[in-house]
Amino acid sequence: MSSPILTARGLVKRYGRVTAMENCDFDLYPGEILAVIGDNGAGKSTLIKSLSGAVRPDNGEIRLDGNVVSFSSPIHAREHGIETVYQTLAMSPALSIADNMFMGRELRKAGVLGKIFRQLDKKKMQAIAREKLSELGLMTIQNIGQAVETLSGGQRQGVAVARAAAFGTNVVILDEPTAALGVKESRKVLELIQTVKSRGIPVILISHNMPHVFEVADRIHVHRLGRRLCVIDPAECSMSDAVALMTGAMEPPKVGATQ
Amino acid sequence: MTETSGAVDTNLRKQETVAEFSKDHENALTRLANFLQATPAAIPLIVLLAATSIFGLLIGDRFFSPFALTLILQQVAIVGIVAVAQSLVVLTAGIDLSVGAIAVLSSVIMGKFTFDLGVPPELAVLSGLLCGLFFGTVNGLLVAFVKLPPFIVTLGMWQIVLAANFLYSGSVVIRSQVIAEQAPILQFFGDTVDLGDAVFTYGVIFLLLLVAVMTYVLSQTAWGRHVYAVGDDPEAAELSGVNVRATLVSVYALAGLICAFAGWALIGRLGSVSPQAGQLANIESITAVVIGGISLFGGRGSVAGTLFGALIVGVFTLGLRLLGADVQWTYLLIGGLIIFAVTVDQSIRKASL
User: N or C terminus: fewer CB in 10 A for chain B?
Assistant: First the structure.
């Protein structure tokens, strides 16, 4: 395998007397879908927040493409091409699809209108938004100007993933993307994750849903008691083994537990 | 959401394309909600036109004349300007109770600096504007950084600024004649442009320009989109990369500055500098904002709606007075309109969620 694009070594995070991460390691390779699973309270969200810039680890180092990085905020991580789709989706319901996709990184018109009058280039933003959505097979949008709150849950998730894929040049992190969705909508989102992968962008998928994880993941990072317990290959491992590992009912296998 | 996905389920052809955005599974209610969402000023505009027509029919030429209609504009100019400031704050899901007090203190500073300190009137006006900017900024810092509820911050600021106003001015009025002789610039917004029988004060023109400029800024610039996003869902805005705190501070600061302009325009309207004026401007501005269709929950509405809201109040006030009705009828009807407007807002929000 080639060298990892995103790595973490020895991450530690304490909240008062609670240790959320204890000497935690992490590796993400180019072009893969890495699922992160773990019991509630295992500290996987702290790990993910460290990678997406929402939490600053007390100790340890994170490397992106071999270079040590330290993110002060999600915006900072985003500038490094790491995009996160939060469980809440982080969208403004009353604003349009295009507005939401470009929130915080709007494009201004060229020339005097943009420089002095600060006018936004709405046409260009709508065109790019439409293009990004169709690249991911989310198209036949007739009205890119419609408010996000008029969309269904799956559609909103689609827009959020499209936003991340459009700007996430290095990594896209998806936090429980199917948790709030019905069966059909989940299916569509899983296909979407595969599409993002096929475009060469590695994906970190945090999920509780074992069938979903086993369907799309190339490797599975099992998180337990604040650290990486092992990494398993979904082709060689059963779902019940994965659950046993993350609940501590089974010891990690010696083979395949490296990396 | 339920309506849309329910429609998808029953549509076999569309079954496999869930993340599709087509219009044919929108029912009439959703479409109406979309329209009102896109053009929130529509209802207040309809109410304004209806009210103007009805009073025009009942009263005739005394009401439906260029003079009377522009008189309404003059009467709502001050509240209208303050209401634009209020609109910005309400769009961020806040409220500003200190708007009127800031306007009055700014006007007192313009007057007192000119006549007591002997400052050149231009500089006194600038000082008054800076006063508004200062108190607005303090409001913004307290809301954004100390994380106090806007209601409490501005309730306190209202008392502080009002008390400062009375302490500094000693409740003494600076008379119109003195101002006209020595510092006419203070009355600038009271000067008029006449087009036949129609009379426009510079205060009215300023209000219309302000609404036009703020409409542009709110819809066509990144800052404007951020104001809506912050009011809609501050956490989502923050995660999307909006500097929520900077946006909030700039909104309150700009609101303070606009209020100072309202204070300047107030001198033009009254002729004099009066520390007792503008006492109800905060409530009247909130009334205009609510009737104008801006949601008190933030993120929805437009300043054009606010202008219509202010004009509706003006039309009712003048219309009922010309009909010879007791002034209490105005308050009664305006009260009903406020409740109606909020009911409409709630139903739009429900239909679209």
Answer: C
User: What average pLDDT does this structure show over B168-186?
Assistant: 94
Q: And the tokens for A157?
A: 């998730």
Pairing of strands A33-38, A59-64: unpaired
Mean pLDDT of chain A: 88
Q: Do B220 and A120 touch (CB under 8 A)?
A: yes
pTM of the model: 0.87
Q: What is the pLDDT of residues A32-70, one digit of tens each?
A: 999 999 988 888 888 998 998 888 999 999 999 999 999
Q: Name the residue in chain A with its Cα closest to that of B228.
A: A95
What average pLDDT does range B311-339 have in this prediction?
93
In this predicted complex, what is the ipTM? 0.83
Distance from CA of A246 to the nearest CA of B (A): 30
Which residue in the block uniquely carries the two structure tokens 């304004």?
A: B48
Q: For the domain B43-352, what is the CATH code?
A: 1.10.3470
Contact A140, A158 (CB under 8 A): no
Give the distance from CA B291 to its chain's centroid.
Answer: 10
Give the domain ranges of chain A. 6-90+162-247, 95-146
Region A244-252 average pLDDT: 86
Q: Angle formed by the axes of helices B202-220 and B222-232, to 10°?
A: 80
State the amino acid at position B290 in one-letter form: V
- Residue with the larger pLDDT of the pair A168 and A202: A202
Structure tokens at A61: 């180092």
**Mean pLDDT, residues B136-158 taken together:** 97
Mutation for testing the A interface, residue in B13, B18, B91, B353 having most A CBs under 10 Å: B18
CB distance A45 to A26 below 8 Å:
no
Mean pLDDT of chain B: 89
Half-sphere exposure of B180 (CA within 13 A, CB side): 10
Contact A147 B37 (CB under 8 A): yes
Residue B140 has a pLDDT of 98
- Cβ–Cβ under 8 Å, residues B110 and B124: yes
Each domain of chain B, given as residue ranges in start order, spans 43-352
Q: Which fold has domain A6-90+162-247?
A: Rossmann fold (3.40.50)
